[in-house]
Specification:
Blueprint (H helix, E strand, L loop, with lengths): L1 H58 L4 H14 L2 E5 L12 E6 L4 E5 L19 E8 L6 E8 L10 E11 L8 H14 L4 H11 L1 E7 L6 E8 L6 E7 L1 H51 L14 H70 L4 H32 L8 E4 H11 L1 H6 L3 E6 L6 E4 L1 H18 L5 E8 L4 E9 L32 H11 L4 E5 L3 E9 L8
GO biological process, one term: cellular response to phosphate starvation
Protein name: histidine kinase
Pfam families: HAMP (PF00672), HATPase_c (PF02518), HisKA (PF00512)
């Protein structure tokens, strides 16, 4: 019901507004249109007189040039122009003319008189180069100026007393865009001046005082109203007189009133129909948007309003679609954030458990060697046999080295976790690094009967871009881990593979027991050992792989661990170098 009420309100308001505007326009046309037309006509004529006066003052035309200037303004303004002398007498100027080149190459001027011809007497569509035949009377002794009687392309023999001349039009100025009978209107200026014959002095005094004269005049024969403007020409005792008809506005106003009376019922009917269509067209997207808003209120984002218009409704529809999309994304992100928060809480619990394990591990790792050192020291204080003193001192030094190694690894690991380590990237030989590491572990490998194999892809030093000291630490830790967990009398395989993306893939594989799936992700944690017994004889501080993880992360390497058919393989990647030492 509410949607229909919106459409009904739009229909009523639109209809009333349009009808009110229509009535106001009709009333204004009936009351003010004629006055507005007269005012506009007067203003236009005043501007034309000023333009004519400026050109007259600037060019000072005479004779034919003055006639051409006069004719041009008459055509442009659809008005009759005349120039009067200081006694308000009309100068003998014929603004319209034709110039021809006759068959005997004479130049002939055809003067178009104000009386004796109508516009229909002149052939229409004339242009320079057209051939024309004129019957008329020569007006000078040299037979160069003629007053025409008829103008025609071709014709029979001329009437008695007329001369026929044929030739090519070279230049002309004829009535254009003028009223129905411009020659008759131009001749009416003489009638106006005759009526003013007894009032010349009063008109002249008024012109000399104000410089302009505005009045209206009625043609007694036709009853048509004319407006007349006069203005003095600067620098001379001459005046320009302009006369134009007001008949068109009267006819227009009368026809407009008849048209309004006839068209009013049709317009009212069209207004009602169009208002109804318009109200429904406007309310339809509002209804759709209202339904979409209800769905959004229920957090239902499955259906969106499909309004394709490029107006405010289209913008509102697109904004609602964007809003619903953003709400949907926000809800999904909130759900994901809640899940992430839940995971973070689990991670926090796991971290707390690791912290407890870390404290327990540190306590365990430090308590045992400290207890041993204390026992050996007490034995020395009690004066043990001489043959045991050297052994006790060696064990005290060994346990001290082990604690130093543990504390050093813990300090190194804390630097990585605090992001306080900066790499010194340079080009270095990875193959040389592997050989040096293998040489340092030769004693341990001999004691377990271990051998190694290097699997190389191609030749060269296998240059990589890395921090050499940190990378050596990675190789030493991984080889130490492999040797520690390798079965006796087995082989450690070291593989170097060049990849298409410019990286070197390193794999260190030992033969031995596999790692359980539950331990795969935790072996990189602090103090985590696969051996639950924490047998100290197996060596290591439990921090080596955690340090390896941080170093490889800083190098942007891909790394991991996997079980193989014979044991366990650790792998990582490095960016190869072309031999320069730049970062």
């Amino acid at each position: 019901m509410r949607n229909r009420s919106v459409a009904f309100k739009l229909f009523v308001v639109t209809s009333v507004l349009i009808l009110v505007v229509f009535l106001v326009v009709m009333l204004a046309e009936g009351l003010f249109f004629e006055k507005f037309y007269r005012s506009t006509k007067m203003h236009k004529l005043e501007q034309s007189i000023e333009q004519f006066a400026d050109r007259y003052t600037e060019e000072q035309p005479k004779g034919r040039e003055l006639s051409k200037l006069l004719g041009t303004f008459m055509n442009d303004q659809n008005a009759s122009f005349s120039i009067l002398n200081d006694r308000l007498e009309r100068l003998n100027l014929n603004p319209y003319f034709l110039e021809m080149r006759t068959e005997d190459e004479r130049k002939l001027t055809i003067v178009i008189p104000r009386e004796g011809l109508t516009r229909e007497s002149i052939p229409q569509g004339l242009k320079n180069g057209d051939r024309l035949t004129v019957d008329g009377i020569f007006m000078d002794q040299q037979d160069t100026v003629m007053q025409p009687y008829t103008l025609q392309p071709e014709g029979a023999a001329p009437e008695v007393g007329l001369v026929r001349v044929s030739g090519i039009i070279t230049e002309f100025l004829l009535p254009e865009q003028r009223s129905y009978n411009p020659f008759y209107q131009d001749a009416l200026i003489d009638d106006v001046l005759r009526e003013w014959s007894g009032l010349h002095e009063s008109y002249l005094s008024n012109l000399r005082m104000t410089g302009t004269l505005k009045t209206e005049w009625v043609d007694k024969w036709s009853g048509i109203h004319y407006v007349i403007l006069m203005q003095s020409l600067p620098g001379s005792e001459r005046y320009v007189m302009v006369m134009t008809s007001l008949q068109p506005v009267g006819e227009a106003v009368g026809i407009l009133k008849q048209y309004s009376a006839f068209a009013a019922p049709i317009i009212v009917l069209l207004v009602l129909i169009l208002s109804l269509v318009y109200s429904r067209m406007i309310s339809r997207p509002l209804v759709q948007l209202s339904r979409s808003a209800k769905r959004l209120a229920r957090l239902d984002f499955s259906e969106q309003p499909n309004i394709r218009s490029k107006d405010e409704f289209g913008d509102l529809s697109r904004n609602m679609i964007a809003m619903s999309t953003n709400l949907d994304v926000a809800l999904k992100e909130l759900t994901a954030a809640n899940a992430k928060l839940y995971e973070d809480m689990l991670e926090k619990d796991r971290t707390e458990q690791l912290r407890k394990e870390l404290i327990a591990n540190i306590s365990h790792e430090l308590k045992t060697p400290l207890s041993n050192v204390k026992g050996f020291a007490e034995g020395l204080q009690d004066g043990v046999a001489e043959n045991k003193r050297d052994r006790y001192l060696t064990l005290i030094a060994s346990e001290t080295d082990r604690m130093n190694s543990l504390i050093g690894d813990m300090l190194e690991l804390s630097k990585f976790e605090l992001k306080a380590v900066r790499l010194n990237i340079r080009s270095c030989s990875f193959l040389l690094m592997v050989h040096n590491a293998l040489d340092s572990f030769s004693h341990q490998m001999e004691s377990k009967g271990l051998t190694y194999k290097l699997h190389l892809q191609g030749e060269g030093d296998y240059l990589v871009r890395a921090d050499q000291a940190k990378l050596e630490q990675v190789v030493l830790n991984l080889l130490s881990n492999a040797i520690r967990h390798a079965s006796t009398h087995s082989t450690i395989n070291i593989t170097l593979e060049r990849q298409l993306d410019g990286q070197l893939r390193v794999t260190i594989e030992n033969e031995g027991s596999p790692i359980g799936e539950e331990d795969m992700d935790r072996i990189w944690d602090h103090f985590y050992r696969v051996e639950r017994s924490r047998d100290r004889k197996s060596g290591g501080t439990g921090l080596g792989l955690a340090i390896v993880k941080h170093i490889l992360d800083l190098h942007g390497s891909e790394y991991g661990v996997r079980n193989t058919s014979h044991g366990v393989a650790f792998y990582f990647t490095l960016f190869e170098s072309r031999g320069n030492n730049d970062e």
